[in-house]
Amino acid sequence: MSRTARSPRRRYPLSLHLRTALSRRRRLVAAALLGTALALAVLRLAPPDGPTVPVVVAVRTLPAGSPVTAEDLAVAAYPRALAPEGAAADPAELAGRTLAGAVVPGQPLTATAVVGPGLLAGRPPGETAVTLRIDDPGALRHVRAGDHVDVVHSPDAVGAHRDVLGRGLPVLWVAADPPPGDGGLLAGDAGAAADRGLLVVGAAHEDAVRLAGVAGTGRTTAVLVPAPGPGGPGGTDALSPSAGAAGP
Length: 248
Fold this sequence. Notes:
alpha+beta; Type Iii Antifreeze Protein Isoform Hplc 12; 2 domains; rod-shaped; SAF domain-containing protein; SAF
């Protein structure tokens, strides 16, 4: 009986052996890679050494113009060097305020993230803010928010006849004088120059309509007066269509 000759064993490239071994152990390799990634993430997110400060952050997406509640906020520990400038440290500082822009979860909130109180905050119910343009902006040089003014209107350009449209009206806002310049396009703040002469006063709604009606007609000026005392003349109830003419 003759023996059958054995065929020589085929040799495969080393790279093929490696790919085959990796394919058979791909689950083990994937688990090892996943563990490495998790370890790196933990190290990256771990609090760094050094002092931290409390920073108020949003816990959910909030649209612009929405009121902020305590449930919308949380406090995170930020490294002192990475804390945003002006960031709030206590949720009570922002609760109840209105967002000036949209926020996303985890976004730090600063004082500029919410709008300031309105001009009518703390004013009597039913009072309206009226914007007037004073023909002589110099008359507003010493007027500040919180002062009281008499609003005087001259129907004609000559100004021989002047009507007192309001006495002792509270000043809610007054435009600041623009910075000095040479009058060029780049001199000073163009927005401040456009606001020059603007004055916002508080008035009852029906009286605010009449005050707004004089805009662009004749000449309007404001006279700084002492604050009206309790129960005394002045305030929004001092407006009257027949307030009479003021002397020259």
